[in-house]
Automatic annotation (TrEMBL):
<feature type="domain" description="HTH psq-type">
    <location>
        <begin position="1"/>
        <end position="52"/>
    </location>
</feature>
<keyword id="KW-0238">DNA-binding</keyword>
<protein>
    <submittedName>
        <fullName>Tigger transposable element-derived protein 7</fullName>
    </submittedName>
</protein>
<dbReference type="InterPro" id="IPR004875">
    <property type="entry name" value="DDE_SF_endonuclease_dom"/>
</dbReference>
<dbReference type="InterPro" id="IPR007889">
    <property type="entry name" value="HTH_Psq"/>
</dbReference>
<feature type="region of interest" description="Disordered">
    <location>
        <begin position="526"/>
        <end position="549"/>
    </location>
</feature>
<feature type="DNA-binding region" description="H-T-H motif">
    <location>
        <begin position="28"/>
        <end position="48"/>
    </location>
</feature>
<dbReference type="Pfam" id="PF03184">
    <property type="entry name" value="DDE_1"/>
</dbReference>
<feature type="domain" description="HTH CENPB-type">
    <location>
        <begin position="68"/>
        <end position="139"/>
    </location>
</feature>
<dbReference type="Pfam" id="PF03221">
    <property type="entry name" value="HTH_Tnp_Tc5"/>
</dbReference>
<dbReference type="InterPro" id="IPR006600">
    <property type="entry name" value="HTH_CenpB_DNA-bd_dom"/>
</dbReference>
<dbReference type="InterPro" id="IPR009057">
    <property type="entry name" value="Homeodomain-like_sf"/>
</dbReference>
<dbReference type="Pfam" id="PF04218">
    <property type="entry name" value="CENP-B_N"/>
</dbReference>
<dbReference type="GO" id="GO:0003677">
    <property type="term" value="F:DNA binding"/>
</dbReference>
<dbReference type="GO" id="GO:0005634">
    <property type="term" value="C:nucleus"/>
</dbReference>
<feature type="compositionally biased region" description="Polar residues">
    <location>
        <begin position="537"/>
        <end position="549"/>
    </location>
</feature>
<dbReference type="InterPro" id="IPR050863">
    <property type="entry name" value="CenT-Element_Derived"/>
</dbReference>
Length: 549
């Protein structure tokens, strides 16, 4: 029997299992005992069968979506969410990659059409949208690969759970590490420096690259020193010994990790640092020192057998192929937070706050001289500071999906796209666009094309909303609201019914929202009616780098 607390909430995958037991004719008591749920929870799941199945099947990868979510409540702006997701699915079905910046641009255009003036396609919105629809931050791949990846997630969880129990590991002894690119000198397109043709090639994002590895334990109490891979043996700007740097610096011709470099890091840095942390910080006894490092299945990583300490207590295990974007903790907001913090520090050092008397030429000259000063040593120190500033709670939350099947929460307060736009504007960078800033911040470069017209998507979403309203077509919203007002007056005047006040109040608020939305939909309907062409009024849909067809 699965012993759960009285008020435990099942995730969607578990609710689907409950539904399958009901379909198989299992008794009420046996299902309640297996899942540790109350009778009311059982009947709630049974009553909401259609809602649960529809929600799960709607996801980009249904199995992963079911594992991560507990509720079937949609986005705050459901029409915008539906339109963006429909647009995304079109491109995905055509095998076209979709950038995060394109999703944000699509959301803002659709929100404008739906009259959602208070909607913001922030980094947090993008993070939640991807989680809501189980969309990994990755290039689009074939259905077979995605299906195989999602099917491998749960078996790996079970394997990991067994290892944790057998080795008696606590959260502080679980580690995850991941590599990432860092275009350390890049600036947004159309900035003063990019227009001046210094070392930045034309108006393109600078491609001077470093590779970095970040590694931390599951409760965020131990962040290991980051390793940086560069092309030169010793950067010219680094005059002191590399051992004094706040990172571990290693040269590589391809500026990427090799098996030799990774093995060297594991035995010379990871194992000693983990031992030191557990003995001197956690105050563990020598015989209790152990750890498990979880990594991607990458050609740059040696086999798990060769990544084992001499005493066999510090080991390594690999995520199944193609699952790291789904459950790898470092990909659940940790690396993104570190990169955003780095970009902030880079801007502080690279940009100039101009005087009012400066003309355009002086602004360009000052901007260029400031960017030229920014060197690889500055980048290394800023990267190390950024890693230090990644919050413990950010790292701990990133493990929620892998360990507990919970949707990870990531706090991007102060690191949203608009925050960077503000500092760019203060420094006179008025010609860069928000899309330029996002492409620079996100660093993704996939390009694609649009298939269905945006007007068609808007019309379909609007009609979809209309179909839902048909279920209540027999009732006038104004009459329902009037009845609720009457009921609320009765409840307020009758003590034994006052416990229903908040429920009725919530219903009243929802009816008001529906009335408002019906007005918005009527406006959109008139917007979609044919009218004389006017270039100023024409709707330009979410743009992509390729031409629309």
């Amino acid at each position: 029997m699965n012993k759960r607390g009285k008020y435990t909430t099942l995730n969607l995958e578990e609710k689907m299992k409950v539904l399958s037991r009901i379909e198989a004719g299992r008794s009420l008591k046996s299902v309640m005992d297996e899942f540790g749920i109350s009778k009311s929870t059982f009947y709630d799941i049974k009553k909401n069968k259609k809602l649960i199945l529809d929600f799960v099947l709607k996801q980009d990868m249904p199995l992963v979506g079911a594992e991560k979510r507990k509720r079937t409540t949609g986005a705050k702006y459901g029409d915008v969410d539906d339109a963006v997701y429909m647009w995304y699915q079109q491109k995905r079905s055509a095998g076209v990659p979709v950038r995060g910046v394109e999703l944000q641009a699509a959301a803002e255009r659709f929100a404008q059409c739906f009259g959602r003036t208070d909607f913001k396609a922030s980094t947090g919105w993008l993070f939640r949208f991807r989680n809501r629809h189980a969309i990994g931050n990755r290039k689009v791949c074939g259905e077979q690969v995605l299906s195989s990846a999602s099917e491998n997630v749960e078996p790996f969880r079970q394997k990991l759970s067994m290892i944790i129990k057998e080795e008696r590991l606590c959260l502080a002894q679980l580690y995850s590490g991941d590599e990432t690119d860092l275009f350390w000198k890049s600036m947004p397109e159309n900035s003063q420096a990019s227009r001046k043709d210094i070392c930045l090639p034309g108006k393109k994002i600078n491609k001077e690259r470093l590779s970095a590895l970040l590694c931390a334990n599951a409760d965020g109490t131990h962040k290991l020193k980051s390793i940086i891979i560069g092309k030169a043996k010793l950067p010219k700007s680094v005059k002191e010994d590399t051992s004094t740097l706040p990172v571990i610096y290693k040269p590589s011709r391809d500026v990427w990790f090799t098996r030799e470099l990774f093995s060297e890091w594991f035995f010379q840095n990871f194992v000693p640092e983990v031992r030191h942390f557990q003995l001197n910080v956690l105050r563990f006894h020598e015989e209790d020192v152990r750890a498990l490092l979880i990594l991607d299945s990458s050609p740059a990583h040696p086999s798990s057998e060769s990544l084992t300490s001499e005493d066999g207590r510090i080991k390594c295990v690999f995520f199944p192929h193609n699952t790291s974007t789904l459950i790898q903790p470092m990909n659940q907001g940790v690396i993104l937070s570190c990169k955003r913090l780095y970009r902030w520090k880079q801007l502080e050092e690279s940009l100039v706050i101009f005087e009012e008397s400066d003309d355009e030429q002086e602004k360009r000259d000052k901007g260029v001289s400031k960017i030229k000063i920014y060197n690889i040593k500055s980048a290394i120190f800023n990267w190390a500071k950024s890693w230090d500033e990644v919050k413990q709670i950010t790292i701990a939350n990133a493990w929620e999906n892998l360990l507990y099947k919970k949707e990870p929460e990531c706090d991007f307060q102060g690191l949203e796209d608009g925050d960077y736009r503000e500092i760019l504007e203060k420094c006179g960078e008025l010609e860069t666009k928000l899309d330029d800033d996002r492409a620079w911040l996100n660093g993704d470069e996939e390009k694609g094309c649009l298939l269905k017209t945006n007007g068609g998507i808007i019309k379909e979403v609007t009609q979809k909303g209309g179909d839902a309203e048909k279920q209540t077509a027999a009732f006038k919203l104004s009459a329902v609201r009037e009845s609720l007002d009457y009921l609320l007056d009765f409840v307020d005047a009758t003590p034994e019914f006052q416990r229903f006040h908040f429920t009725l109040k919530e219903m009243q608020q929802e009816i008001v929202k529906k009335q408002f939305q019906s007005k918005i939909h009527s406006r959109i309907g008139s917007f979609l009616k044919p009218r004389p062409h006017n270039s100023k009024d024409s709707f330009s849909g979410p743009s992509t780098s390729a031409s629309n067809h």
